[in-house]
Amino acid sequence: MAADINVTPMIDVMLVLLIIFMIVTPAITAGFQATIPRATNPASREEQDGEIRLGIDILGKFYIDLMGPTGQYTGMRFISDADLPDRLAAIYANRTVDKIMYLKAHEDIDFARVQEVVEIARKAGVRVVGTITEQKRLPRTEGGH
């Protein structure tokens, strides 16, 4: 009498994992994605608590990242054009010290969209708009420097 391996439980587990990955993978990839511009000499600075970051993706959609009630950042969350002015006004109305907003925009979007969000931010009480960029990679010279 030969012992047979029962593979049914393994197949059941694999099918459940397959379904979980099929559901979770699109949710992970959805959201804010932008290739940000590269600058020659950007100022390197660590992120501070309480900073407000606004993103604009390749399609011109707005995303906002702010600190939630638990003290953790929410991550980039979509916000509609209609809701953005009121949301920014509510955030910056309560701020007394730093009225700074950091802007992270895709490098290929129309500049008019960036200008539009800067105007909305100014009307909402933002005093300084900082941009988030990456270090531009310079071509290497012959000497290896």
Write up this protein.
This protein has 3 helices and 7 strands. The chain is α/β, with parallel strands linked by helices and 145 residues long. It has a domain at 38-135: Nucleotidyltransferase, domain 5 (2-Layer Sandwich), CATH 3.30.420.270. Helix 2 (84-93) crosses helix 3. The longest helix has 22 residues, at 8-29.
Short description:
The protein has a domain at 38-135: Nucleotidyltransferase, domain 5 (2-Layer Sandwich), CATH 3.30.420.270. It is built from three helices and seven strands; from the N terminus they run αββββαβαββ. It has helices spanning 8-29, 84-93, 111-124, and strands at 38-39, 52-56, 62-65, 77-79, 100-105, 128-131, 134-135.
With strands numbered from the N-terminus, the spatial order across the biggest sheet is: 4-3-2-5-6
Strand proportion, as a percent range, falls in 15-25%
**Secondary-structure element sequence?**
HEEEEHEHEE
Per CATH, what is the topology of the domain at 38-135? Answer: Nucleotidyltransferase, domain 5
Give the biggest beta sheet. 5 strands, mixed
Low-confidence stretches: none
Multimeric organization: single chain
Structural class: alpha/beta
What is the name of the CATH architecture of the domain at 38-135? 2-Layer Sandwich
Q: Count the E strands.
A: 7
CATH class of the domain at 38-135: Alpha Beta
